[in-house]
Specification:
The protein is an alpha/beta fold. The protein is built from eight helices and 16 strands. The longest helix has 13 residues, at 119-131. The protein starts with a strand and ends with a helix. It binds FE2/S2 (inorganic) cluster (FES).
Length: 297
């Protein structure tokens, strides 16, 4: 589906967790073509005349009702503007943007891993997977029970496993601690969360091929031929795909405000080449600014 600019009408707005909001918009043009992992760029106009744009993952998109939802934390003026919207208000929404998660057609068991607000990046994949007859385990991590995403907002069929840093709900510790228990069950894994969580996850799944063999999905076929870096085919074969949470400027590939370093030595724009990447595409060690600094010496 090609990107378009639509006028979306707010239907429902509620604070589901402290400072975290879930808003539903009627936007049938977007709801029918969006895929999990993609995002929208929304234009806000506040009374000061300041124009701000904000990227939001599609949290859900329902082609039948024409509704899309976004889930965000209020972190400043732009996001607070959204919380003052009332049902019937309209906003300009550009989307769908970015590249989606790619599920191998042979995958039956999907492991979703979310840290905090990262749930917004993988939530829609649960719907898509269940619709396609797959089983879904969602591992979710937060600082404490009061920040745990409500299970009532998830489809009943999802097996939901929680970790909290302080042990106030579920496993005490990081969500990544839970991954080894599910690694053998999972055909593929999909994650969204803070950069350190994704970097830790990349280490947890490293060596999976050696531990498990490569036969679980018949991936021996075509052995020896590798797909091009960042191609849809290569991502579809990746055990782990990650959706990067990155500050964005333009969201359409022009400003380079969103880059991460690729393992091919090239900067990768989260808004264009991402926000979803195969885990092997991202250079987890070192930040882009460090890379720039090293390149300059
Ligand atoms: S946000 Fe401008 S290039 Fe990605």
């Amino acid at each position: 589906m090609t990107m378009r600019l639509v006028s979306a009408e707010l239907v429902d707005s509620r604070e589901i967790l402290p400072d975290q909001w879930l808003q539903s918009f009627h936007a049938p043009e977007l709801a029918s073509g969006a895929r999990a992992g993609q995002f929208v760029h929304v234009r806000t106009g506040d009374l000061s005349g300041l124009v701000l744009r904000r990227p939001f993952s599609f949290n859900t998109a329902d082609p039948v009702t024409g509704m899309i939802t976004i889930h965000f934390r209020t972190v400043g003026r732009g996001t607070e503007w959204f919380t003052r919207l009332r049902p019937g208000d309209r906003i300009d929404v550009l989307g769908p943007l970015g590249r989606p998660f790619e599920v191998d057609p042979r995958s039956r068991h999907l492991l979703l891993v979310a840290g905090g607000l990262g749930i917004a990046g993988v939530r829609m994949l649960a719907d898509e997977a269940l619709r396609d007859g797959r089983q879904v385990v969602l591992l979710f991590g937060a600082a404490s029970a009061r920040e745990v995403y409500p299970s009532s907002l998830l489809p009943d069929e999802v097996e939901y496993v929680v970790a909290t840093d302080d042990g106030s709900l579920g496993h005490r510790g990081y969500v990544t601690d839970l991954v080894p228990q599910y690694e053998a069950w999972a055909d593929q894994a999909f994650a969204c969360g803070p950069h350190p969580m994704l970097a830790a996850l990349s280490r947890v799944v490293a060596g999976r091929r050696e531990r498990m063999g490569v036969a679980t999905l018949g991936r021996k076929r075509g052995g020896g031929r590798s797909d091009a870096f960042g191609s849809t085919a290569a991502r579809r074969k990746a055990f782990l795909q990650v959706s990067m949470e990155q500050n964005m400027g333009c969201a359409v590939g022009a400003c380079l405000g969103c880059v991460v370093m690729g393992t091919n030595g090239q900067p990768q724009r989260v808004c264009r080449e991402g926000p979803v990447f195969g885990v092997d595409e991202v250079a987890w060690e070192g930040t882009w600014s460090q890379v720039l600094a090293e390149a300059a010496t």
